[in-house]
């Protein structure tokens, strides 16, 4: 599926607004000059700038092309399954991440998605483990973003 620049710019603006609004609820870190909202705010501001640029560029060009066009690969059943799986896994993360914790749910989501995309299990398992640890350490320790936790595997971090 391909969106023209105007539609994509509007979607980016909506996403930027959602990021900026949700970052307002992040709690500050005591003793820090920056808090958990710093990176989401920076990303939201950059995304808003990008969205405005895309909308303006499309408007100046006279809104060229169709709003939405499907590529040939997007009509295959495998692509439809991949997109449906990605959306379902996002819902799974939203629903279960607070109860299960970030590490187990992130590992499971990465593993299921790679297997859906026909990655061999001998590759998918170590990549899912490595990516989960990398994301947890980057966001949890380096950027101090509060990720969902529970008792399972909490001794590791």
Strand order in the sheet with the most strands: 1-2
Give the helices and strands as they follow along the chain: EHHEHHH
Spans of 5+ residues with little confidence (pLDDT < 50)? none
**Tally the helices: what do you get?**
5
- Shape summary: flat
- How many E strands? 2
Describe the structure.
The chain has helices spanning 5-23, 38-60, 77-100, 102-116, 121-142; strands at 2-3, 68-69. With 157 residues, the chain is an all-alpha fold. Strands 1-2 form a two-stranded antiparallel sheet. It starts with a strand and ends in a 15-residue tail after the last helix.
What features would you highlight for this structure?
single chain; 5 helices; 157 residues; two-stranded antiparallel sheet; mainly alpha
Question: Any chance you could write out the topology, listing elements then pairs?
Answer:
Layout: E1 2-3, H1 5-23, H2 38-60, E2 68-69, H3 77-100, H4 102-116, H5 121-142
Antiparallel strand pairs: 1-2
Helix pairs in contact: 1-2, 3-4, 4-5
What's the gist of this structure?
With 157 residues, the chain is mainly alpha-helical. Helix content is 66%, strand content 3%. Strands 1-2 form a two-stranded antiparallel ribbon.
């Amino acid at each position: 599926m391909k969106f023209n620049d105007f539609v994509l710019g509007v979607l980016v603006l909506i996403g930027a607004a959602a990021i900026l609004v949700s970052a307002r609820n992040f709690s500050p870190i005591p003793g820090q000059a920056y808090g958990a909202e710093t990176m989401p705010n920076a990303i939201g501001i950059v995304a808003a700038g990008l969205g405005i640029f895309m909308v303006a560029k499309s408007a100046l060009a006279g809104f060229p092309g169709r709003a939405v066009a499907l590529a040939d690969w997007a009509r295959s059943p495998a692509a439809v399954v991949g997109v449906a799986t990605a959306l379902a896994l996002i819902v799974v993360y939203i629903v279960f991440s607070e109860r299960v914790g970030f590490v187990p749910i992130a590992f499971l989501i990465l593993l299921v998605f790679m297997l859906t995309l026909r990655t061999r299990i001998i590759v998918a398992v170590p990549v899912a483990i490595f990516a989960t640890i990398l994301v947890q350490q980057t966001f949890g320790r380096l950027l101090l973003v509060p990720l969902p936790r529970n008792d399972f595997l909490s001794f590791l971090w």
